[in-house]
């Protein structure tokens, strides 16, 4: 099937719909040769004097103008991507089909007459499997733009899409397939492909995470009535949680006091210690700015408060002296003066590579990574500073305490200390059980 149609996009200012302040909506007109045009509203308005007729974009340098032009660029990319996908499936594409797919609807819809002789739309076809994945990812991208989802999670979704495309070609010899062709065995075969058959196999937990996302796509298809029931519903994606042993406080001290002459490793050490005493994940430390420092309470304590990138849940921690020292150390660093960030942080890949070097020069035989610091923070808060599990959960930005329980292990030392402090409530000094009834009167 070969499709040689071309797409044309025109962004224009609908002056006929201007409001009392002379702002008018911006419209994208889709044209495909051989068929009627279709229009999509950007959901944005621009002033009549701030629309560039020649270049078809908003004029100015304010925040609203940048958002409008960014939306124009993103819509252009999205529509062209969906158009390419439709070319692989249909001999003839209309502007309305492209609009439907962009809006998350089936490409083709037909009109039928009901008993009242009113025209209603009836679904005539469903998107293919990979088209459904693309629609789901496009919706996720919009949520990322609004700050409702994490850009890191979006990368994972795109990775799953790549794995699925490769799997379809490897197992079935096709570039795509209809949704109704997917059976329960799809999950089993996909798992085997990821863990044993592809060139670079991955671990069980990573493979099941890809399948979990695939199940999410099929749940999305079921909600849209593109399939009757998710065929992978019964596939279990849970894995045994591997317990991560946090660093001992003596190891943390060893890292902090180590004299390091190599600047890049000294900065990595500071970032890692910063994480150990704030609990912030990599993407959140990377994005910290002076605006995230807030004065709390009558005493005006300095706290770090930020919406967690992964979940959007607020995480908040008091700035401890060791963190304050690190912040002061980078007060005049380029990361602060030019980029507006609190501390210098490398890319995730480089950061983790440098952490391995740091472990070696500190003489600690452990695999260092950014997530180890988060577990170490939870351990320090719970077992040394004796915060409650609920308080640690709030500082980590977790949705539930159940998640926090995977991070924070109650150590024997804390149990012993608590017992020493509380045993007098149950036993006398000579070890006899107290007369509970009398002591509670």
Automatic annotation (TrEMBL):
SUPFAM superfamilies reported in the protein's UniProt record: DNA breaking-rejoining enzymes
Alphabetic keyword roster: DNA recombination, DNA-binding
InterPro entries per UniProt: Arm-DNA-bind_5, DNA_brk_join_enz, Integrase-like_cat_sf, Integrase_catalytic, Integrase_recombinase_N, SAM-like_dom, Tyrosine_recombinase_XerCD
Residue span, Tyr recombinase domain: 242-420
Source organism phylogeny: Bacteria, Pseudomonadati, Bacteroidota, Sphingobacteriia, Sphingobacteriales
Organism: Mucilaginibacter panaciglaebae
Family of the protein in this entry: Belongs to the 'phage' integrase family.
Descriptive protein name: Site-specific integrase
């Amino acid at each position: 099937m070969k499709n040689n149609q071309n797409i044309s996009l025109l962004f224009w200012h609908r002056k006929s719909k201007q409001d009392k302040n002379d702002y008018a909506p911006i419209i994208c007109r889709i044209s495909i040769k051989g068929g009627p045009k279709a229009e999509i509203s950007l959901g944005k308005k621009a002033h009549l004097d701030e629309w560039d007729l020649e270049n078809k974009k908003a004029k100015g340098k304010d925040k609203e103008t940048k958002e409008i032009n960014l939306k124009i660029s993103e819509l252009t990319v999205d529509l062209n991507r969906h158009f390419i996908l439709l070319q692989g499936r249909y001999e003839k594409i209309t502007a309305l089909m492209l609009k439907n797919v962009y809006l998350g609807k089936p490409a083709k819809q037909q009109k039928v007459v009901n008993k009242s002789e009113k025209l209603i739309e009836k679904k005539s076809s469903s998107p293919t499997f990979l088209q459904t994945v693309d629609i789901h990812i496009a919706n996720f991208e919009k949520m990322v733009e609004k700050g409702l989802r994490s850009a890191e999670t979006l990368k994972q979704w795109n990775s799953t899409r790549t794995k699925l495309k490769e799997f379809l070609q490897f197992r079935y010899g096709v570039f795509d397939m209809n949704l109704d062709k997917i059976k329960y065995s799809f999950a089993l075969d996909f798992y085997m492909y990821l863990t044993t058959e592809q060139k670079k196999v991955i671990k069980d937990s990573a493979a099941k995470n890809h399948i979990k996302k695939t199940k999410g796509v099929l749940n999305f298809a079921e909600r849209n009535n593109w399939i009757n029931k998710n065929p992978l519903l019964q596939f279990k994606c849970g894995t045994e949680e591997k317990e991560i042993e946090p660093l001992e406080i003596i190891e943390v001290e060893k890292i902090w006091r180590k004299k390091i002459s190599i600047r890049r490793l000294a900065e990595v050490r500071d970032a890692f210690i910063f994480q150990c005493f704030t609990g912030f994940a990599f993407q959140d430390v990377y994005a910290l700015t002076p605006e995230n420092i807030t004065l709390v309470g009558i005493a005006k304590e300095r706290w770090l408060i930020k919406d967690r990138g992964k979940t959007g849940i607020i995480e908040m921690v008091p700035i401890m002296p060791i963190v304050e020292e690190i912040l002061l150390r980078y007060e005049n660093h380029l990361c602060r003066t030019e980029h507006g960030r609190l501390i210098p942080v490398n890319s995730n890949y480089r950061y983790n590579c440098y952490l391995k070097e740091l472990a070696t020069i500190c003489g600690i035989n452990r695999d260092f990574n950014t997530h180890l610091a988060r577990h170490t923070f939870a351990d320090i808060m719970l077992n040394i500073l004796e915060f409650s599990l609920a308080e640690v959960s709030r500082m980590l930005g977790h949705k539930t305490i159940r998640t926090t329980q995977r991070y924070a292990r109650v150590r024997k030392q804390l149990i012993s200390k608590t017992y020493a402090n509380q045993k007098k409530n149950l036993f006398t000094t000579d070890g006899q059980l107290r007369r509970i009834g009398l002591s509670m009167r």
